[in-house]
Each structure stands twice: as structure tokens, then as C-alpha cells.
Amino acid sequence: MTVTGATTSVELREHNRARLLRAVHACGASRTRSQLTKELELARGTASVLVGGLVADGLLHEEPSAGHGRGRPTQIPGPHPRGPLALAVDLREDAWEIAACELGGRLTVLDDWPHQGSPARTLRPLGDALRAHIRQYGSRVVGVGLAVPGPIRDGHLVDVAHLGWRAVDVPALLGALDVPLDVSNDTVCAALAEARRGRMAGVRVGLHVHVDFDLGGVLVVDGRPLGGASGVGAEFGHMPLTGGTGRCMCGAVGCWGMDMGSNALLRHLGLPAGGGKGREEAQAILARGDAAARAAVAANATALGTGLAALVNAHDPEIVTLSGLGLDLHAKAAEPLEAAFHDRLMTIRRDHPPEIAPSTLSRRGPLLGAMESVFDAFLTPEGLRRWRGA
């Protein structure tokens, strides 16, 4: 028997409403009502009443399943056309992207704009754009999830070393949004999305690495990225894993991220790097076929494999997943990546090393993880009562 904490029939019904919606969201709105009923161990009559109430509240809409046979068609519960939306933001070091996400995980990109790099000139226009979308969608917006490329302290103070951001109060510069705001590290968001909807689904212990201008990494246990004692986790890129001696902009010496990502590609070829500049140049290096470009890519991949081996030796994950620029490195330089990885594994791990797997979520991991943070807060009895009241 599932322990719910509910003490009255009303509380139990509210608990089951939230459970049913979470199940619809988690499966990508792909399962039939009967499948959900069985999965959640509900009586058929109870499930019918719950779905009917959620449809009446503008939270669900049912469609006949494709290819149904004779008789009454099987229904698939999915997002209501006027149902709740999460606004998800992927704030990168050179641009930001906003998407509207509906129950089930489908997202629609609304904006993708470059920014100027300074906190005020980045976050104030972003806040204006978010308020415009909130006005457009009205009460359908149940929250904003923001993925940022740096550590977060106290849930709102953000540090982005390459941009010189130090303890930037993100909510204060965004301005009032009149909906809940969740600020999370981009690697944590990407890892959460991978655990919910990607290669790490159902994995007990996994390791996720997200590569952009440099990289972040986080351990995921039972589907939950481990954020550390104060929440400032997902900073594997600032561990001295590759023997470097250069001083990172974070203040430490020898960070793994100095040898990884777009900045490292640019530095390898003697090009200016840092300050959130050079993404297009780095992509051009990846696309080139000359010897210098191939050497830069191979050096990146070797550094990636070296660091991953150290983390696997320490944490014993079942799988290692890559997102961001990690997808390109895996596709273009798998051989030096795997060679460096296997060469540095402990002997006891070489017979059965964990798979290094590119994300199946393309480059949408940070957006999808930011979305999950919003729906995690909304898909509760309290969140659903607020929706009904609105």
C-alpha cells in the first residue's frame, strides 16, 4: 500500500490528482488511461472520476489512441490546449533562449537572443522578455525555470567566472515576474532532464557532463543530481583532473575545464578565448578538416576522456552521459576520447567500463531540466489548488 500522508477522502483525491498528472507528464503524454490506471494502482472508476475532474479544470485533454481497434477507442490523457505552461530559460554565456513547455514535456522555443555579457544588460532585457510572455499566456504560466552557466548560492546568487559575474542577484535584476522562479545550474538541469527523459532514465548511479565554453559535471543518484551541502555542486570542471597548471578564471589552478570546451579549442589554435565570445569560431574548428583543427579537437577529446576516467574511478557510475559540445566531441573524436578514458581506468574497471553515451535530448537538456523544476513545484496538491483558484 502506498503511504500518502492523506487523512481524509478529499486529501486522498487531491493526492491522486497530482499523482496522475505527474505520471502523464513523466511519460510524455504517451500512455493510455488504462495503462496509467494500472501503473498507479487505481480503481477504474476512481481513474475515470480523476480524469474527468482534471479535464474540467483545464489540466488534461483526452485524444483517441492511434490505431485503436473496434469498439470504443482507447483514450490518451495529454495536455489541455489551455492548460499550464512552464517558461524555461537556458541562459548561456553569450545568449539566452526561452521556451514554453506544456505538460508532457513538449517545448516551443519563443526567443533566442544574444546578450551583452554584463549582469544588468543581460538580465534586465531577459526579465522584460519573460514579462511579455507571461502577459501573453496569462494565468497559464505556472512558473519560470532558469538554467545558468555557473554555481548558485542561496538559490539566487550566481557566479559566472568567464563573464566576471560575482554573487549576482538574479531575481533582483530580472525584476518581479509574479510567478514562481527557480534558478538552477545548467549542468544540474541537463542532468535532471537526462535522468527523466534521456539515457539516464532508470539508472541508479550515473554521471552527467555538460560541455559548453568549459564544462560542468554532476553525480546523479536515483534520478536526483547531487547539489552538495550548500547547493554549489555540478562543478567537476573545476577539479584538477588533467594535470594542467594554468590559473582558471574561477581562481583555482589546473581546472579540468581549462582543457575542455569552446575556450580550449580556441586557445589551442592561438585564438582569443573567454568572456563568452567565440562560439561560432569554435563550431568552425569542429567543422574543419585540416591538421591543426583535428589536433585541437583530439586534445579536447583526450582531456574529456582523462577527466571522465578519474570520476569513474571515484564514483563507480553505471553510465556517463554527455551533452552540449560533448555531443560533437563524441561524434568527431570518439577514438582519442575512449583511448584516454580506458587508459586511465583502474584495472578492475576495464573489463566492464560504464558506457560513455551522448545525450538523446540534443542540446535541449538545460531547457528541459529548467522545465522539470517548474512542474515539480506545480504538480502537487497545493499547486493544483492554486490553479483551480486562478
SS elements, strand count? 15
Largest sheet, if any?
A: 5 strands, mixed
The SSE order reads HHHEEEEEHEEEEHEHEEEHHHEHHHEHH
Overall pLDDT confidence = 94
Question: Which bin fits the share of residues in helices?
Answer: 40-55%
**Uncertain segments of ≥5 residues (pLDDT<50)?**
none
Brief descriptors of the model:
single chain, 390 residues, alpha/beta, 5-stranded mixed sheet, 14 helices, 15 strands, 21% strand
Would you write up a description of this structure?
By secondary structure, this protein is an alpha/beta fold. Strand 3 (85-91) and strand 4 form a beta hairpin. Helix 7 (261-268) packs across helix 8. It is globular. The protein contains 14 helices and 15 strands. It has helices at 9-26, 33-39, 44-56, 119-137, 170-174, 186-197, 261-268, 279-287, 291-315, 325-332, 334-343, 347-350, 365-378, 381-389; strands at residues 60-64, 75-79, 85-91, 95-102, 107-114, 141-148, 152-153, 157-160, 165-169, 181-185, 205-211, 215-221, 224-225, 319-324, 355-358. The model has no long low-confidence stretch (mean pLDDT 94).
